[in-house]
Amino acid sequence: MLGTLKNIFSKKKALNSAAETNEFGLASNPDFLSDPNKIAKLLTDIENNSPTCTISFTDINEQFSSSILDVQVKNQLIILDELIPKHGNELLAKKCHLKLSTLFNDIHLAFNLNGIVADTSRGIAYYKTPFPNKIYYPQRRNSPRIQINSLNIPFSGLSSKTGTSVDGYILNLSRGGIALSMQNNRARIQPGHILKDCKITLDDHPVTFDLNVRFVKSISAGRKLIGGKFENISPIKRSKLEHFITSLEQEEIRKRNT
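Structure (tokenized):
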């Protein structure tokens, strides 16, 4: 169905228009992408890469899957595939709005879509919705994340909300924060929670900090992706972190030049 519908819709470029909500945080939050041209480009890049998208509704715990089939920039429209499981389409018919989230280039992003209208083409159902005014894009930064999942560096911390221990392995690392994989979410971690007394070991040097959780996402059965920003990290520990990241960056440059 994805290939058929992609051939139906033409791909164009334009600016943004839509209703705004503040479900993800304050309007002034720098983690939001709000420039219309950048939103248009990001949506087009997502559509070109065809990632699976997670669909959720307010006050409903169940999540659904869909895909962005086309981004019509000139018309300021997103074309969405039907929801899976199918009963999600019945919910959407009643609500006409949803939250879409996905991973793109290892970055978790999310945005609200409103004014959704069902339509069909050649007997295939799809949805049309205006561009969002804002996209929650928490990892737009000057310090890019470096993939280190192959190093199997363990992470440990403590949920300040539930007092439950949190364990996992680091997937990527930047000067501002980390993303980690954990097998379950016993601590019921949510965006905005603080993980206290966190510890990772880099080149035999322990680095301790608190972590401000920015996103939580299921990446497979029983496995969660947690991302956040460093807080309360001492100058000495930050220096160890900087040294480790610099060494990884230098190694990456050497690989590219060989």
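Confidence is low (pLDDT under 50) at residues 8-28. The first helix runs from residue 2 to 8.
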